[in-house]
């Protein structure tokens, strides 16, 4: 029950698993023809293994491996699931991708470096002081809610917490909405039944995976710097990973466009539309790593 319905990270992993290069492949014919004895599968996310075609909800725990001689751990193209029109492109997955993984998560990774958040904080603090409202400037925030280490002079105020929350939710919603413009325009221009905006949105999955790795590695880099390790390779790693994510998403979008029934002009316009979300995310990470 926890794995399928309650785990807060399930949605994120379900989206990113769509480009997993390894997955548990089910041979339906072999499953149906099997005549020997077998133990029922104790599947943590409670999947119908016999009918499993997507890696999204599978946790790759291996409990079903070899079941009925029909389930094997196999390699595949990372793009095969998104390009397979038999696998539905669901709205929850698309919204999780743009608003969760690419939106809120990106805002969470960058808020400590954002000059916009700092400017908003200074302006809000100045307004509060001018109007004699000091409650939000108190630093008596509980340690379990925000950073509170008086001995290290590392204290957050209630204003900090409110602005951070607003930045994460507001910034994530704004970024996600801007990213959706490209897939929506591409789908509208092509007017092909199986090429919905959800399908084009899922084409951004490689870029989302690169963004998550780039963001999570920022804390690792902080620890490595504290150990005085050589990090001359870091800019090249970041550029390479971001480039790989951008190219992967553009390639996926191109393959979807080429499979449409639209005219050359429509395909060209759809391709230009899909350049927008990729370029936007590349700009965001360039600001984080090389400008701010």
Describe this protein with a few key phrases.
292 residues, mainly alpha, 2 domains, two-stranded antiparallel sheet, 5% strand
Write a structural description:
With 292 residues, the chain is mainly α. The protein folds into two domains: 2-83, no CATH class; 91-291, no CATH class. Helices cover 59% and strands 5% of the residues. The chain has eleven helices and four strands; from the N terminus they run H-H-E-H-E-H-H-H-E-E-H-H-H-H-H. The strands form two sheets. It has a two-stranded antiparallel sheet. Strand 3 (148-149) and strand 4 form a beta hairpin. The protein starts with a helix and ends with a helix.
Distance between the termini: 43 Å
Number of domains: 2
Q: Quick one: overall form?
A: globular
Summarize the biggest pleated sheet.
Answer: 2 strands, antiparallel
Provide a quick synopsis of the model.
Helices cover 59% and strands 5% of the residues.
Q: In terms of topology, how is this protein built?
A:
Blueprint: H1 2-6, H2 10-16, E1 22-26, H3 28-33, E2 71-75, H4 80-83, H5 91-110, H6 115-130, E3 148-149, E4 154-155, H7 158-190, H8 197-202, H9 205-226, H10 234-258, H11 264-291
Antiparallel strand pairs: 1-2, 3-4
Helix pairs in contact: 2-5, 5-7, 5-9, 6-7, 7-11, 9-10, 10-11
């Amino acid at each position: 029950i926890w794995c399928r319905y309650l785990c807060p990270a399930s949605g994120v992993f379900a989206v990113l698993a769509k480009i997993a290069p390894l997955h548990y492949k089910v041979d339906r014919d072999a499953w149906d023809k099997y005549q020997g004895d077998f133990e029922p599968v104790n599947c943590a996310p409670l999947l119908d293994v016999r009918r499993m075609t997507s890696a999204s909800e599978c946790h790759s725990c291996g409990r079903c491996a070899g079941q009925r001689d029909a389930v094997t751990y196999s390699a595949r193209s990372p793009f095969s699931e998104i390009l397979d029109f038999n696998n539905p492109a669901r709205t929850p997955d698309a919204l999780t991708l743009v608003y969760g993984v690419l939106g809120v998560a990106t805002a969470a990774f960058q808020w400590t470096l954002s000059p916009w958040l700092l400017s908003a904080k200074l302006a809000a603090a100045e307004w509060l002081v001018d109007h004699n409202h000091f409650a939000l400037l108190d630093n008596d925030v509980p340690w379990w809610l925000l950073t509170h280490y008086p001995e290290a002079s590392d204290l957050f105020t209630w204003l900090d917490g409110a602005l951070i929350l607003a930045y994460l939710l507001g910034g994530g919603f704004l970024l996600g909405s801007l990213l959706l413009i490209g897939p929506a325009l591409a789908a509208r221009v092509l007017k092909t039944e199986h090429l919905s905006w959800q399908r084009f949105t899922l084409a951004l999955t490689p870029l989302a995976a690169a963004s998550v790795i780039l963001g999570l590695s920022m804390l690792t880099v902080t620890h490595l710097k504290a150990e005085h390790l050589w990090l001359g390779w870091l800019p090249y790693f970041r550029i390479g990973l971001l480039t790989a994510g951008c190219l992967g998403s553009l390639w996926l979008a191109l393959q979807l466009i080429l499979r449409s029934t639209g005219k050359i002009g429509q395909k060209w316009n759809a391709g230009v539309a899909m350049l927008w979300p990729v370029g936007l995310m590349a700009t965001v990470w360039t600001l984080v790593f090389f400008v701010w």
